[in-house]
Design goal:
By secondary structure, the chain is an alpha/beta fold. 38% of the residues lie in helices and 17% in strands. Helix 3 links the parallel strand 3 and strand 4.
Length: 292
């Protein structure tokens, strides 16, 4: 691992029980793994996915990170902050056209020193094509390239460390899924009889299934069968929200004092509560939801 002065993560992140009558009525115990409290600027799965990549970039002699994301990408935010802490220049390749003023996520990344550039949506879909990468290298020089969401085998390995931090036993581990690396890693780190569920935050999230399997092969040399995707709660698609979702966020904050991220965690928690109330988990089950 590279070392940064003044940078410290809170490991293991806190595990707290959620007391909610909607859940209790189904006989299910629900715990929150507060990975969002791991670090204020590089929280949760963002740190877990980045840490081994930062070490690899340093070992390979890179001084600049280049990565991809949408306009509301938490990964771009975290990469920009990590770059500032660990002494890397950062370039964020954003999907779509530039829109000013910058939204809060991109403005934060820019304040951390990230250089933002934009690809139209057609080109962005080809972001891993050799000619597109060559064009970016010509503009920005040699970079350590992180995939969208930071999702690669090293990222999955970092996420695989989380289940071992959960003491006391559990049956199901849930996370929000945008690119698949978090789910791939969590599932790989589970013990016998445990399973993972990824709640897709993108419309048509079924495409994540092959990606999870690919990432597991890359990271661990084999696939696991102890995970599934729930694609029924995207609320219109990535970085989209509805009045119903906003009401759930406000109610959750009032009940539990936790403000859920509307792009990822709110969709996961909404879907999980609905599944619990519908009887998707046997009474007596312990379910852990990871907030990142």
């Amino acid at each position: 691992m590279p070392v940064a002065s003044g940078f410290a993560v809170k490991l293991p992140s806190p595990l707290v029980e959620l007391h909610d009558e909607r859940v209790a009525a189904s006989g299910v115990r629900l715990l929150l793994k507060r990975d969002d409290l791991l670090h204020p600027d590089v929280p949760g799965n963002k740190w877990r996915k980045l840490k081994d990549n930062l070490a690899a970039a340093r070992d390979q002699g890179h001084r600049r990170l280049l990565t991809f994301g949408g306009a509301y990408s938490n990964h771009l935010r975290a990469t920009a902050a990590a770059g500032k802490y660990f002494g890397f220049d950062t370039v964020g390749v954003v999907r779509g056209e530039e829109r000013l003023p910058l939204n809060e996520s991109l403005a934060y990344a820019a304040r951390q020193g990230m250089q933002l550039t934009y690809l139209d949506r057609t080109t962005y879909r080809r972001k891993t094509a050799p000619d597109v990468l060559a064009g970016l290298a010509e503009r920005f020089g040699t970079c350590y390239v992180l995939p969208e969401g930071g999702s690669n085998g090293l990222a999955a390995r970092g996420c695989a460390e989380l289940p071992a931090e959960i003491t006391g036993g559990f049956d199901v581990l849930c996370c929000a899924s945008g690119t698949g690396a978090t789910l791939a890693g969590f599932a790989a780190g589970l013990g016998p009889g445990q399973r993972a569920i990824g709640f897709a935050v993108l419309k048509g999230g079924e495409f994540l299934g092959p990606e999870v399997r690919r990432l597991q092969r890359e990271a661990f040399g084999a696939e696991t069968r102890n995970w599934s995707l729930d694609c029924d709660f995207p609320f219109g698609g990535y970085a989209r929200r509805t009045a119903e979702l906003d009401a759930f966020i406000a109610d959750f904050r009032e009940r539990h004092g936790v403000t859920l991220d509307w792009v990822y965690e709110a969709k996961m928690m909404y879907g999980l509560v609905q599944r619990i109330r519908a009887g998707a988990f046997a009474p007596g089950s312990t379910v852990v939801a990871v907030l990142c």
